[in-house]
Model the fold of this input.
Amino acid sequence: MNQKRIKKQISNFLNGEYFTDALRITLSIIVPAGVLFALDLPQPAIGVAHGALLIALTDIRGTIEDKRTTSIVSILLFFVVSLLSIVALPYPWLMGVILFFVTFACSMLTVYGSRFSISGTAAIVLMIFIWGLKPSGLSFCIYLLTGSILYHSISLLHLWIWPERYLRYAISECLLTTHDYLKVKALFYDPNIPLEECYKKAILTHNRVSGAQQQLRSILLRDKAAMHNSNLKGQALLRAAEKTIDLYEQITAIHYYYDFIREQFAITGALDLIRQMVEHLTADMLHISEMKPFSQQQQSLETSRQLSHLTARFEYVISKESHSNAEILSKLLVNLKSIHADIQGIHRILSNANATSITNEPKPEYHHFAPFENMEWKQLLAHFKISSPIFRFSLRLALTCLFCYILAQFFELGRYSYWILITVVVIIKPAFSLTRERNIQRLTGTIIGIAIALILLFFVKNTIVLLAFGTVFLLTFFTFNRTHHLLSVIGLTPMIILVLYIYGDSGWGFVLERIYDTLIGCAIAFAATYLFPSWESSRVPFLCRELLKANIHYLEKLQDVISETPLTPTGYKLARKNVYIEQANLSSAFQRMLGEPKHKTIASENIYHFQMLNHILSSNISSLFMSAANRQSTDFSFIQSVITSLTQSELLLNKHLPQSVSIDASDTHSYVQDYSVEKHQDPLFVLKDIAKEIRICCSEIRANLI
Done:
């Protein structure tokens, strides 16, 4: 990596969303607290800092309406929880009862999405802090409320001054993840990398792309100001977002039988030229993802000349190939040129808001694509059953916290024993594998953080310098809180130790206590994962069926196009979106399942093969959509046969139905065994064979379920 690129990455980090947000949050917490401490008001300073800190934890990327709603709910929730905690503090039995019900109720807020899940977790942490720190009187509730409102006001002011800031970052992240996926696609043309490894990377990268696209839709399509026709920048960002998602489809549509491609073109130089062209395209995408939209100075893309030179060489290689091979390479070249044109189009839009041209093309009904976010009682009530994973998680966490509370009442665990409960709340997650991962990260981060704190306390004696280090550690915590849990714990641990050392008159004993509190909390949290567990293996077959249904619906839209039935962009793009989301849901659940005990996993090799086949299937459907205008009506029967086969596969995965779907012997051959060039040229043939492969795979999965 050259020096210029390193400087660019440092600049991107310092100007990026996470660091600038962390800097704003840190200043919003320490400045008011510092002023109050300077005025010799330590109790108000601690209460205001706590209020600002807790509400800052809920301040994640979103529209101004999202932030306003989340903050108002969180402020009221924190105030009520603090009042209940202060009132119950003198009565240990009452405190235990309220802790159980508050923990359960706040955990159930997960029903309403990640925003309110974070608010619920912060409220639980607040109650534990009040029990541990024992602030005096109801005045603490007022200080807490003041700090929450103060931070909320600063956050809204920041968003009002820079209204399109989060949209820009969301588009940048979407472009960056798409760039990563394109880099993975280049690996398929490298004979030295096993195809299985390529598919694994492609599936995992798709998860990040799907997540970025969903967040982009959530922020952009639900932002009333940005979506208004009179807002030129908002409309430009909308167009850029739409083209970015369409670009991803263009990239996924480049799919061939790669064993055949590698064998046929290994010595012609075509594979190397393809990789070089993709590298230039990814460089352009990386440049666009890092640029600031609509700024006064924008650098132009620099790869057009290199791509022209590589295209000329590629066309020469094509001219030397046989007719069938030349047709394959020509089609691939057309796809690469289309990707290049789309990248240039996105660059033009983000360079100049006024460059967005008005076309007569029908636009999708955007409100259908915005993730639905609403708070209704019936959503909550629907999860009040033991079969609900959220209910089981909430009950597990509430019982575990109550157990830790009772443990602290009967045994002398030290002055800071409330950190056992904090550790439990932070670590325990709905999924077993996530809890185990957090456990490891928490332990590792705490040990490293304590080591850093001890070194500082040994060498630094000046209080001002220690406070400065504490501020840096707090900044580190908020910078990585949403992206790297390990690094956030490494930042949080020394910050707490330094603050307690300076203001708590704690001596060195509390460092040892911090270690064994964390160890106890991690052990209890891990043991609690076996209490009302929700194993991913029980959900995987359902998610496989949902993915098949999404692909069937996607094919039905393709069938409409081929049969010349009028099709709106809304219907087609919604079908495409659902396929992407279901692919990501299955892959995420599969990865979590791999982290569960071995006796709980089911047919992991078959599930992975099922994902790979569906990845190939959806890629070929996308390819057919792009060439649907040239299709003949006779193709209709092909599509219908694929739909029928996938429907049978979906029935196979329903373990509640009798095993009445059989597989004909004639259907058991695989397309990977057929080296017909015609089949590599036409996705229709691949679709039919892939559908048969999926039926075989589903039959094997069913055998493991029975």
Remarks:
- The longest helix spans residues 323-351.
- Residues 663-677 have pLDDT under 50 and may be disordered.
